[in-house]
User: Fold these one by one.
Assistant:
Number 1:
Amino acid sequence: MNQRISVVEKILDANDQIASENRAYLEAAGVFSLNLMASPGAGKTSLIEQTIKNLSRDVRLAVVDGDIATSLDADRAAAAGARAVQINTGGDCHLDAIMLRQALGQIDLCEVELLIVENVGNLICPANFQLGTCQNVLVASTPEGADKPYKYPGVYRGVDALVINKIDLLPYLDFDMAYFRRGVQILNPGVVTFPLSCRSGEGVEAWLEWIRESIRAFRARYGSNGMAKHVRD
Amino acid sequence: MNQRISVVEKILDANDQIASENRAYLEAAGVFSLNLMASPGAGKTSLIEQTIKNLSRDVRLAVVDGDIATSLDADRAAAAGARAVQINTGGDCHLDAIMLRQALGQIDLCEVELLIVENVGNLICPANFQLGTCQNVLVASTPEGADKPYKYPGVYRGVDALVINKIDLLPYLDFDMAYFRRGVQILNPGVVTFPLSCRSGEGVEAWLEWIRESIRAFRARYGSNGMAKHVRD
């Protein structure tokens, strides 16, 4: 058992080292980046579509899409108007920093201000693998049920922002928002939260404004991408 | 890379060996068993609650509940009236045959006709680890979206039955049932399918009848559990 733990720790150490390099590379390039995590079908791709639709006039966007088998999500991001790079994990249940590094090699970062990485649909393993993005975001969804923070604490604990998608379905569900929020507060006190519906558009503006603000704060700290002056500082 | 594949293959071979032993043990004991797999929040626990509620007068039931952190699901199964054993995977994203073997040691199988194993909420890794149950069942849910068979082919390919939960939400979703079913047919032609709603109860009776029929067929092949004569042959 100790041997196994030691192997797992070495894998995670190696991943963290490459994640640090990715982070430094993205900061030097002036690219603000998000790692979106969620269970299958919570709405990562829909959120990316909404983000592209609303921000692509002001912000140059690229998407890296992790999937175990298809390019369906990258196709949707590309159709919505973003540069999209597909990572097929070949069955692996999460992205890791090496996969992101390889994907970054396929993107001209001079052309990018905002990079969104869509992780594999899974609430467990992606939480253990830092990619090197500036922020980690979890997309929860109301039909999943209000007990998810309690049952999947790792991913709730580690994120910088939480989207609660599909609030348009609340009238048709027994979703106890107070219980859900209590779980979130225990694990991640004060985390910024965006209840919204990608389908109806309700609440999406607050999410977009958070991205705009985050890009401004990122630039104030790391400088702009020389080619990218679309969001006013 | 070859070394990694070889390690993974050895782990899966060892798992399959123990799964075979679990299968033989359950067959010898006359216990029909199901492995329920699904994404987080698709409704595995709700389906188990419905099954206990409707079958526990006729069938002696036990539940083994896999979870990464809590005993919330086992508590719900116990509250619904079944013998429930909790497996905390300690962060692991799936159950394996060794975990099930350990859990079986805590159950008096003479008292059991139907064993339901609730796997960890994850559409990817559980598909790679046979547990040794008689049947594998996938619980899909309509809010997850109709593209899931295409995106998570492994789990759709390997199951003996498919539950499509939350059909009560169909009027409020853009779920393309024909597209979903086409994907299922490509991966798993003719798989028995149960569209239902654990919330409204619609469609649940067909699922229950499938379990009753499966128990009868299992007994015709492997014999009854000596202590268990509740379902008429």
Number 2:
Amino acid sequence: MQKVNVGKKILSANAEFAMNNILLLAEHKVLCLNMISSPGSGKTTILTRTINELKDKIKIGVVEGDVQTDIDAERIRATKAPVVQINTDGACHLSAAQVNKALKNLPMDDLNLIFIENVGNLVCPSAFELGEAGKIVVLSVAEGDDKPAKYPSIFAKSKVLLINKIDLLSAGAQVDFDVERVKADARKLNKSIEIFLISAKSGEGMSDWYDWLIRSVEKNRQ
Amino acid sequence: MQKVNVGKKILSANAEFAMNNILLLAEHKVLCLNMISSPGSGKTTILTRTINELKDKIKIGVVEGDVQTDIDAERIRATKAPVVQINTDGACHLSAAQVNKALKNLPMDDLNLIFIENVGNLVCPSAFELGEAGKIVVLSVAEGDDKPAKYPSIFAKSKVLLINKIDLLSAGAQVDFDVERVKADARKLNKSIEIFLISAKSGEGMSDWYDWLIRSVEKNRQ
């Protein structure tokens, strides 16, 4: 009698697609970064500014994940970067299979870097590998400085932490946020995490993030 | 041969516990509200201020849901309100079974109102009924005004929308947020949703929310 191990097959389906994505990205020498945060941390604004500022240096494409609507994809499209929209229709994270389909609809030969903008959710997306080279977690200062302690998984797994909306910390601002606490808590979970303080709105602090991206893309093409 | 419909049983387990919770709450005439939002929208600050301001009028208890840590439960405990902590250990929402256990550890005979503070997540908790009388969705102005369109499920299902951190909209503030767009989008999904503009930090707008709570508790005790 033949035994079919259905349980194992289901469990590893995402991992198999993630492996396909790794191979596909390597074949085209494209760096892929999976951007994860709560709703409203500023992922799309970071992406549009980054694409516009780096358009002469890096060719960027975007896989745009949303529960509903194509509001974010429209914002990306305005930068002229190629973008593929995935609507999860209620699901709380992107799967590697969805990303595989999206990658195949991007002009990969013309790209150096693909951002996956995951569904706005600080919990679930951290558990699903998509075949990316690294995760980028975004935390807005308006969300409070206790988030690495309260949602440790994504901070433990990310290559980069972008602390966004630092313009709200300027003199006279009404947001309480202890940057040093966040840095210390994130580094307790993840010694090698790179941390950049940015305002995607004002542009403050973005140049260090751009330098990191340029270096990472360069390394990936070697 | 006996047929065991395992699929159905698993699917309805949460609904069965939710029904138990409804009966338990009705027996004690306790109103139960399930508070849902992204991480960092201000749920705990809303609760601590509400408990302190209403302590002579309503006896409030809290079921505190978190992925990790008891940071929020400690903040509630400082108000002297009874609180039971649930750590989901990575899971992205509370289940009715977890809430059932927590309710049994609260002094229900001494309470008029129990808030469930769900895990910070705008997607998953909206799909799990806990036996509550109503859901309260919180949206901070720092998260942006496109959230009802992008995450419709929780706005469609909630009794109340609290638009929090309106102090960040004051003159000279750097947050762009079209209150009328949010109201219109939320009401398109949910005609009867009550909307309050508040700052749990400054206290602005909180009195209408308190009045709604007092009326709702009164109605529930009749």
Number 3:
Amino acid sequence: MSTFSKVVICGVGLIGGSCARALRRAGAVKTLTGLGRSAASLERARALGVIDEAATDWAQALDGADLVLLAAPVGATDALVTELAQHLPPHTVVTDAGSTKSDVAAVFAARLSPEQRARVVPAHPIAGAEKSGVEAASASLFDGRRVVLTPLPESSPEAIERVTRAFALCGAHVSSMSPKAHDETFAAVSHLPHLLAFALVDEFASRANASELFRYAGSGFRDFTRIASSHPEMWRDIALANRGNLLEELDRYSAALSRLRSLLEAQDATALEALFQHAKDARSAWLDTLAAG
Amino acid sequence: MSTFSKVVICGVGLIGGSCARALRRAGAVKTLTGLGRSAASLERARALGVIDEAATDWAQALDGADLVLLAAPVGATDALVTELAQHLPPHTVVTDAGSTKSDVAAVFAARLSPEQRARVVPAHPIAGAEKSGVEAASASLFDGRRVVLTPLPESSPEAIERVTRAFALCGAHVSSMSPKAHDETFAAVSHLPHLLAFALVDEFASRANASELFRYAGSGFRDFTRIASSHPEMWRDIALANRGNLLEELDRYSAALSRLRSLLEAQDATALEALFQHAKDARSAWLDTLAAG
């Protein structure tokens, strides 16, 4: 007997498709329904065995659904939630996969009734990948990765339990924090580094001697800038959605760089070495906690 | 018949030891002599088969040497070159493995005669590794990597040819530039990213909620900060030695960050996406050139 009789994936790309594949791997769902604007890409997802059926009609798709995962680009969230408000059956639980959470919480607050919001539990699956599209979807994308739930004030314990169970069945470690704490934390550990990497590569690429510079860039540069190969439109939306926190993080980092610059200008060998050592030790301790699982 | 009858490695750590192992793999040298201050670590290098004999006496070590590689920490360069000046035989060629080159060129200019400098060809093997010590030395460390020669004004064609041959036998791609161009280029593509990574990890680790932040740091953060696990003392020396160029790079990068901050504050979605796309495209083109070899 499957845990879920029907799960609806709204936006069957890398994240939605991987979630579908992982739930299927777990034998956790009877019917996987894909919902989306493009009939052609839904048909591709069906042909690949990612979903069982394609739907373009909300009422039909949601009929009998235990769970809906909104996994379309965040720019579409408002339109999707507006549709959802008109068609959400009384026993269907909703989650999403957006990288920022305060903005998503605001959309749910604006578009859904308090009764509907009781069945909504926003989530952020931390599974970055440079790839995109349903072809890249993998049943193991979430294995051992974190999924952070950011419940709304109205989210019911039953809804939280159902969403937790779904992501746990996908192989993820599930934890919770408030949308505000989520956006502050990820502004620092994820959004800031992405902006720093994009800024560096853009700046180098804008120079007259760019090809000469890139010729001598090595493996350190390659890893440092890996995240500058991330999806430009997605990161534009994340940066704008988390603008306030990200501006603060940019200011903190600029101040830190400024202090480092002063140490270098003053040739303060002791302080420079101490700063480098502090960073190395902190990173090493962090890697130890990762290895310890 | 070996290409070299005797090669002297001064400082048998990761770089010196890997060079020794690579020359041995190539069957290119009859005798590998290690020179260094610590008899115990030279003995370890000999026991590991990295060198054939350990020397602590310069005159004895250099007697009959075709090539000397200075691979001790850069802080020792001045003292080593002072010794070298007193003992350099007339047919021995000298190279080094320092990550900055203008400072090294200045030491050679100060300590050696013009005739001696004709036989000196400074080099920078681009083979970063978080490991250090002779135990980590590997015959394949330089395979497919770049070695940049920065000849002195006096370096003779014969000396350049000999050093080129040695690094090519180690498996590296050898090219040349001036010490000034080298230090400008590497300030941008290597030294700046190291400082940016060290600064970020140091700043996070200094916060009250550091452990909470690190808990949510993912694979993007891990790769972005890999170079913050580099050797603190070595990077202190590199930063100080290349201070002028690095201060300029920090200023350029701070200005770029400032522009990015303005776009974000103004919510300029079009310009943000264009910047991210420009970076992604440039990195993608660079990866293509790497793949093409």
